[in-house]
Amino acid sequence: MAVVDKNETAMLAVFGNPVEHSLSPIIHQHFAHQEGRKLSYEKILVAKSFESSALEFFSAGGLGCNITVPCKLDAYAFVSELTDRAQIAHAVNTIKLKYADDGTGFYVGDNTDGEGLFSDLVRLDCPLDGARILILGAGGATRGIVPTLLTKAKLKSLTIANRTVSKAQDILTTTTDFYRKKNISLDLHELKACSYEDLATAGGAFDVILNATSLSLNHELPAITDEVYSGARFVYDLFYTQDGSTVFTQKAKALGVAASYDGLGMLVGQAALSYKMWFGFTPDIAKTLEHMRSVLKQRAAAK
Question: H or E segment at 160?
Fold first, then answer.
């Protein structure tokens, strides 16, 4: 049986490749300290098969795990049951081992990225009501966050810009089709997919810009004009850094967007939802975010 008693050590892990850089063990140990729970959290490098790695981990007593790139699609195929969030995202970043009444174990997959982002945008007082939102990039991160934004924020419009427009359109189509089948109406004036070149004619047409590309990792900027930045009231980069500043947020601030933030709060927020799924305990995100900023600053100073 999975361990749920606080005084017994619960086994968790994060799977990915690469995975050594992951902050998940530190974040979840801080959550466990808040709850007063004994916890083991390891990093597992997936060199070949996610399925074989996951089965070995759960067979050894694992209770749950997080999944990072490039294993989220493999995790989606691995689990027995999916939450709505995971179904619509077509990706899983959290797995919990559960047991049926007859004692049979099965795996439940969730995707906490969208809720994690939304909670951080609320924390940062992002002007979401009536907002025109632009998301840059149409990868797995965007697929995870679009459903939550469409159902939880009262937006005026949502646009996804990507080099390959069809990928952006696919996210919008699959998301709206999913909600239509669930008889959930989306109170939104406009959904649009476009190329980065198309944004050149948009001027300052967006209130909120979310950078969901991986460009900041290589200190590169998306191919958008200065006018797109300067017209915004709020800018957010899903990538995070030691000092809370990315090349993307720096560019926005230089163009007058004071409300420019990195994605560490999203990382902590989505982790908190994973922890709640495993143990039913809601961690104090603000305390953990403060702790993680301190950890990152210490690491930077040690270099």
Answer: strand 157-161
Active-site residue, 287 included: no
How far the first Cα of the chain sits from its last, in Å, is 43
Selected catalytic residue, list 38, 43, 48, 72: 72
C-alpha span between 134 and 199 (Å, rounded): 10
- CB distance 76 to 108 below 8 Å: no
- Rounded distance between C-alpha atoms, residue 180 and residue 291, angstroms: 41
How far apart CA 97 and CA 127 sit, in angstroms, is 38
Please give the structure tokens belonging to residue 226: 């200065």
pLDDT digits (tens, 9 = 90+) for 137-180: 998 889 889 999 998 988 999 999 999 999 999 999 999 888 88
CATH number given to 114-262: 3.40.50.720
Would you call 270 exposed, middle or buried from its count of C-beta atoms within 10 A (0-12, 13-18, 19+)?
buried
Superfamily of domain 10-111+266-302 in CATH is Leucine Dehydrogenase, chain A, domain 1 (3.40.50.10860)
Residue bearing tokens 């997080």: 66
Of the candidates 64, 56, 74, the one whose C-alpha atom is nearest the C-alpha of residue 37 is 64
Contact 86, 111 (CB under 8 A): yes
Q: Tell me the two tokens of residue 86.
A: 């995971």
pLDDT digits (tens, 9 = 90+) for 28-78: 999 999 999 999 999 999 998 999 999 999 999 999 999 998 899 899 999
